[in-house]
From TrEMBL:
<dbReference type="Pfam" id="PF02566">
    <property type="entry name" value="OsmC"/>
</dbReference>
<dbReference type="InterPro" id="IPR036102">
    <property type="entry name" value="OsmC/Ohrsf"/>
</dbReference>
<dbReference type="InterPro" id="IPR015946">
    <property type="entry name" value="KH_dom-like_a/b"/>
</dbReference>
<dbReference type="InterPro" id="IPR003718">
    <property type="entry name" value="OsmC/Ohr_fam"/>
</dbReference>
<dbReference type="InterPro" id="IPR019904">
    <property type="entry name" value="Peroxiredoxin_OsmC"/>
</dbReference>
<dbReference type="InterPro" id="IPR052707">
    <property type="entry name" value="OsmC_Ohr_Peroxiredoxin"/>
</dbReference>
<protein>
    <submittedName>
        <fullName>OsmC family peroxiredoxin</fullName>
    </submittedName>
</protein>
Length: 143
């Protein structure tokens, strides 16, 4: 049985929501800390991040890994998977949708098989599953 891996992140927030700011850290890896503000979340990013940008990065990574596995299981392993995620946020409403865009180099795969596998990876990706209450769309292309 696989062991449980616990990933840790933390944030320190100072002040109220609209005027305050914070720092979020990737504690498990120690690879970075990032400034966060309400303005970056609800108005424009500037040089700070938002929870939605962090979700987008996590989702793009998870989907790429899931698609890579699905393609390898199909005996058409990819040489490259490039994925971006766009997480839409409306203040007062929340996250309103996520759109994944992926371009893949996978020699020998037919377009219809690729589309079926990409959709399966979208559904099977653990981050997609965690965000199941949000509409997730996908544009998948072969390079």
């Amino acid at each position: 049985m696989p062991s449980t891996i616990v990933s840790k992140g933390s944030t320190t927030w100072n002040g109220d929501l609209f005027n305050g700011s914070g720092t979020t850290r990737l504690d498990s890896s120690g690879t970075g800390s990032f400034d966060v503000t309400w303005q970056a979340r609800a108005e424009e990013h500037g040089s700070t991040t938002s929870p939605e940008e962090l979700i987008a990065s996590a989702h793009a990574t998870c989907f790429s890994m899931a698609l890579s596995k699905e393609l390898a299981d199909n005996d058409t392993p990819p040489t490259t998977v490039q994925t971006s995620a766009e997480v839409s946020f409306v203040a007062g409403t929340g996250i309103t949708g996520i759109h994944l865009t992926t371009t893949v180099e996978a020699p020998g795969i037919a377009e219809d098989d690729f589309q079926r596998i990409a959709e399966a990876a979208k559904s099977g990706c653990p981050v997609s599953q965690a965000l199941a209450g949000t509409e997730i769309t996908l544009t998948a292309s072969l390079a």
